[in-house]
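Hi V.,

Quick status before I head out on leave. The structure for the redesign project is tokenized and pasted below; the design run finished overnight.
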């Protein structure tokens, strides 16, 4: 039985290599994005009921606050890259003074149209690493940036 293109679009998983990262309205080419996760802290609640002849502690686990997200972005450096924009963003950080930005990571279909979008809310850089330089290697120069964000939400 032959598989039709429409069946592939609706029933097959989307490839993870086809995505776009947008920071403050500008597209950046990153080779790796990780940390798009939502995590909730839990609180333990203990009490000792004495109803219905039962006694002893009852332990309940309840959701608490949402934890901030830590997003990692990696990309290869090219000669005419806009590396200065990312460095100037982290360089302007002072105590309690930072420009927080919303970031979108969009998973694309084969036509380049967004299928799913993750919105990273109020992100700011907390680490920016220059490439590791090794004279006896022919690997690509990779810079990485770590961001702290209030939350990650899935947009339709």
């Amino acid at each position: 039985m032959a598989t039709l293109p429409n069946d592939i679009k609706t029933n097959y998983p989307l490839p993870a290599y086809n995505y776009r990262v947008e920071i403050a309205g500008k597209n950046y080419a990153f080779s790796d994005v990780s940390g798009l996760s939502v995590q909730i802290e839990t609180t333990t609640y203990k009490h000792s009921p004495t109803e219905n002849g039962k006694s002893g502690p009852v332990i309940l686990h309840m959701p608490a606050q949402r934890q901030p997200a830590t997003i990692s972005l990696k990309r290869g450096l090219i000669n005419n890259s806009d590396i200065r924009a990312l460095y100037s963003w982290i360089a302007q950080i002072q105590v309690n003074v930072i420009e927080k930005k919303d970031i979108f990571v969009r998973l694309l279909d084969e036509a380049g149209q967004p299928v799913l979008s993750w919105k990273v809310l109020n992100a700011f850089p907390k680490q920016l690493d220059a490439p590791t330089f090794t004279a006896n290697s022919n690997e690509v120069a990779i810079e990485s940036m770590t961001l702290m964000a209030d939350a990650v939400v899935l947009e339709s």
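Above is the designed sequence. The mean pLDDT is 85.

G. will cover questions while I'm gone.

Best,
W.
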